[in-house]
Write a structure and sequence with these properties.
Layout lengths: L1 E6 L2 E4 L4 E9 L6 E7 L6 E6 L6 E3 L7 E6 L4 E6 L8 E8 L16 E2 L3 E6 L1
Parallel strand pairs: 2-11
Antiparallel strand pairs: 1-3, 3-8, 4-5, 4-9, 5-6, 7-8, 9-10, 9-11
């Protein structure tokens, strides 16, 4: 099991940027593929981005491709989500999640693949 704590959320105007961080503790961070999900009020939690154990492979939801970048620093036990050109529809609680089974690209969007979740951080984009 790994414990995850997100930070970096806040209020930003449309077109602005934020960088979310997710700090991990517990088991070896580099043994986990990592993902970011988000949940807007009244909506299902949806996939945003994922990154493999080494950081070589990434995958994005179409809605954020070209605007968001996921990265990780295994020496710091941290995964990041750089969010640029933010839109009001990006408003949500953002969660990071850890997958102990590694990288299967066809399944990285499935919430059920992820074993451990953070508590979430609120991102609000004003128009």
């Amino acid at each position: 099991q790994v414990q995850l704590v997100e930070s970096g959320g806040g209020l930003v105007q449309a077109g602005g940027s934020l960088r979310l961080s997710c700090a991990a503790s517990g088991r070896t961070f580099s043994s986990y593929a990592m993902g970011w999900f988000r949940q807007a009020p009244g909506k299902e939690r949806e996939f945003v981005a994922a990154i493999s154990r080494s950081g070589v492979s990434t995958y994005y939801a179409d809605s954020v491709k070209g605007r968001f970048t996921i990265s990780r620093d295994n020496a710091k036990n941290t995964v990041y989500l750089q969010m640029n050109s933010l839109k009001p529809e990006d408003t949500a609680v953002y969660y990071c999640a850890a997958d102990s089974r590694g990288w299967i690209r066809a399944q990285v969007t499935y919430r059920t693949r992820y074993d451990d979740w953070g508590q979430g951080t609120q991102v609000t984009v004003s128009s």
